[in-house]
Fold this sequence. Notes:
Blueprint: E1 11-16, E2 37-38, E3 42-43, H1 45-54, E4 59-64, H2 69-78, E5 89-94, H3 108-113, H4 116-122, E6 126-131, E7 135-136, H5 140-150, E8 154-162, E9 170-174, E10 180-185, E11 199-210, H6 211-222, H7 231-242, E12 245-249, E13 266-267, H8 272-281, E14 309-311, E15 313-314, E16 317-318, E17 320-322, E18 325-326, E19 331-333, E20 336-338, E21 341-342, E22 347-348, E23 353-359, E24 364-365, E25 370-376, E26 381-382, E27 387-388, H9 392-398, E28 400-401, E29 407-409, H10 411-417
Parallel strand pairs: 1-4, 1-6, 4-5, 8-12, 14-19, 17-20, 18-21, 19-22, 20-23, 21-23, 22-24, 23-25, 24-26, 25-27, 25-29
Antiparallel strand pairs: 2-3, 6-11, 7-13, 8-11, 9-10, 9-11, 15-16, 28-29
Domain Glucose-1-phosphate adenylyltransferase/Bifunctional protein GlmU-like C-terminal hexapeptide: 306-409
GO biological process, one term: glycogen biosynthetic process
Site (Could play a key role in the communication between the regulatory and the substrate sites): 65, 104
Amino acid sequence: MRLSAPIGRQAMAFVLAGGRGSRLMELTDRRAKPAVYFGGKSRIIDFALSNALNSGIRRIGVATQYKAHSLIGHLHRGWNFFRPGSNESFDILPASQRVSETQWYAGTADAVYQNIDIIRDHAPKYMVILAGDHIYKMDYEMMLQQHVDTGADATIGCLEAPRSEASGFGVMHVDEKDRIIAFVEKPKDPPPMPGFPDLSLVSMGIYVFETKFLFDQLERDAADPHSSRDFGKDIIPHVVQNGIAVAHHFARSCVRSANDGEAVYWRDVGTVDAYWEANIDLTDVVPDLDLFDREWPIWTDGAVTPPAKFVHDEDGRRGMAISSLVSGGCIISGAKVRRSLLFTGVRANSYCDIENAVILPYVDIGRSARLKNVVIDRGVKIPEGLVVGEDPKLDAARFRLTEKGICLITQQMIDRLGA
Length: 419
């Protein structure tokens, strides 16, 4: 990890972490999408925060809004190591009606606007605006350097995406120098890239501005009664039309796995299917996302846990895990675990058979349960002998079954079984 970055030290990262994430269904009933668990011990927001820290940025603000208790608790536990005496800061910025007694954060731009006074106190020269709900590794220093070199008013992180999937993003068209000449937010019919009819160039929700320029834009936007107070819908289109907006291609700053020098990794885990798939992919022999990279670590809450434990060694009752990630505090007690990801403190009791499972912290799986293609929410107690993943009709009647056959299980669903 690079401990300092010349431009990064002049920047502040502002992470937008107030999103509902409703497509994750019951996983976001009690927590915002950035607080959803990922990768065995992390939360989704840890990726944007770790990118900022690893890029040399030491001033970070996180704007929270929707069901923020779990997220705020995680940030307090895992991100409390910044040193104000060394010009470092970490601010948690809940929607607190700072501008108006009746107004929460009205949009992504408004979330920054309502905290202008706090940002001004830190006096950063540059602002890096980040979404807190994507999985990727990126060196923001390279994007900051491009912003300075090109003299842009705004630099926007972008990546190529299938045109069929681009309607959920801001889509841009650039010239030969990567200047953005057109930008439309979430179009129903996304325009293709020139020469690539099946691809669109989409925004990652990552923006770089000089702080003074950003403040001017936010104040102008706040005075516009017709604005929706959103970066993608209002701020960026105005800069494209009236200033200089430049695209930064993710491929230039993606922190790649040491095992694959070409592939870029970015995931929006916004559905249960996408969430399950991205977690299960980590069990591959050589996954596209390298969580073992000591040069670009993913920082998170360093919970104190005992080692994982595997017990019993007899036919039919052997504690074992194959092609799986098993976190600290787990006990595999005479159970078989295959191609699964177990978060902290999971207990799998004797004679269980678990396959293709994403199991969140402190789940207790009763004896002889058979679980396949599941996501199990935190703290669920699975009854003895429960079978999931073998009868889709039965699963759909009891739990949340996705289009791709993944079964989401919560404690409330389990409680209804005995009602």
